Amino acid sequence: MYDIIYSINVHESPECVYDLIKNIRAYHQTLTVGIILHTNKNLFEVLQPSKDVWIYPQPLDKEWCSYGIFLGYIQNFLYLHSKNIEAKYYILLASNCMFHRPVSLELIQNKYAESEDVYIPTAPMPPIAEWAPIYQLSCNADFFNFFHELGIPFINSYHEGSIYPWEIFHKIATLKDWNTMRSKITLEFSFEEVLFPSLHKYFTNKGLRSICTMKLITLESIHEIKNPCIKSIQREYNTPIRQWLRKDTDLYFNSK
Question: What pLDDT is stored for residue 116 in this prediction?
Fold first, then answer.
């Protein structure tokens, strides 16, 4: 069993994907870590699996603010489950997340035990008309009615870096035939930012916890970030931040 498996929808150049894989490995040297990638068609043709790195076998071109992002994380998990691959924690990353501090199992456990949620905004939710994601979900009657029938609370938060004990994400992934639900969509939106936090709340009675800070950073401000992971690294290989992170990664590798 792995300590962590990171699930990532990837969209950019192969160089940036391999850059992220190396970055993850550098800062998890005390842990057993796996990485599963869900690709678009172009990347599927050029990326290669490697030790502890899997590629979901059916690529899907995903658009921003679409169900495909949510579905990619679900399909990744079910693929691992079908191969009897498990971990203590299943953590979602975006392809523009990168690490700048080492990660330990104790850090993950403590972060998941924190009392502070990453709701956006915090509960209770405002009326539907005042909150766009819930309005967008309400336009998808099959989803909205399913949630209401089970009494699932509507919660909104970012998904990047969100931590799920393996057994909790298994409940989420198998609660519904999420592949079939794709055909019932009438309005696309960021499903992952409502479905994941709402379902996690339903099964655990607590909000999501994340190891990732959502912030546009500079070389001057990166050291202020306390979380080990940062979201919104530009998806270009030779940006100043990526160059600095690669140098920092190499230093971390060489110090061990």
Answer: 67
